Amino acid sequence: MLVALYENQFVDMTGESSKEQWYSKMRTGMLLCPVCKNKVIPKCGSKKVWHFAHQSQGACAGLHEAETNYHLMGKKSLFHWLMKKEENLYLEHYLRDIAQRPDIYLGEKNHAIEYQCATLNVDMFTSRIYGYQSIGVESDWIFGMKRIKKKRENLYSLQMTDLTAAKRDKTGKLYLNYFCPLQQQFLLLRNILPISQRKVIAEGYTFAAKNLELSMMFDSFNSKSYKYQNLLWNNQKKTWRMTAYKNVSPSIMYVKKVMYFNHRSITLFSPLAGMPSYNYYFIETSPYIWQSYLLFIIDKLSSPFTLQQLENECKRLMVKRIFQERKLPYLNGNYQCAIKGYLNYLESENIIEQINDIHYKKKRPVPYPKTLDEAFEQDKIFSKKAVIFDFV
Ligand SMILES: [Zn+2]
């Protein structure tokens, strides 16, 4: 940590104090952890960013995880960066009511900023986000750049849980932010389309810290790469078709089996499945899998059918852990929104029609390709026709 108490005043490691000054403060025995009030020692070495550590190991409510040098460096840099822009800035401010200690806290705006480098599971993430919400504090996460890898233009691989912190910009598209303290650089990820647990199609905008305003971090950028996203999405669909037969994940095994018993091959799934329909990302399972399954269910149901019937079927598979919902605590929505969004898409393709609040009727049969070449051809046609990326 970078903050301690000395004679009941907050002191921190972001300034110019010398090693000797810190050690003489420590010798008075008055250098304490602001949260648990136990003694801390200044660590003023040459390998790590100077910081404080508890003198004896013990439970401290203010410590959530061990801090690496990368994290300490990033936190300090972000603090300096924000100091030039904001007033009433607090480093490691302890919010006693919820026992949480955001890396940086903007006092006037009730806004917590977390710099996340360590691995955090979805439940921990969610409970921290809800913690802030419970006391009316806005929160945002900036991730360590080490957590993201660029696979190719507009294609990134993230840590498994990064998407949990995704928010929607004012155009409704998902975004995340990354920061590298070594290069003093931000990477703003915009127009994110998740394609698996870790892989996303997105636009990355790089900024030197000195050129970035705080507000830009939560803003949208004008998308210029619709064609590219469309192309990447189609490539992904191709990959799904080419690899489904050897994929052994529970969801794919299940849907493969269901299709097999109905004389269909998963490789030749309908071109209407695997679409980034509105809200599709609330279901984490690959869209080609859950959408193929819904198409199959719609086929089996008599017409008219209800939204509820499809929801129940999805719910059943989620309880069995065959399908997975994606938790997005900042967004208002759940797997039902994904199903509804997909039905809207099918309606736009004239497959079904909503006849009242509850009922849908089938209008024409779902198309299925007979060969792989035919499938690739249809995928291209449907994605173009649907202007798919307007859905998201
Ligand atoms: Zn403590």
TrEMBL record:
Q: Which domain of life is it from?
A: Bacteria
InterPro entries for the chain? CoiA-like_N, CoiA_C, CoiA_nuc, Competence-induced_CoiA
Q: List residues of the Competence protein CoiA C-terminal domain.
A: 233-375
Task: Using the record's annotation, list all stretches that form the Competence protein CoiA nuclease-like domain.
Answer: 67-219
Species in which this protein is naturally found: Fictibacillus arsenicus
In Pfam terms, one family for this protein is CoiA_C
What is this protein's record name?
Competence protein CoiA
Q: Residues in domain Competence protein CoiA-like N-terminal?
A: 20-61
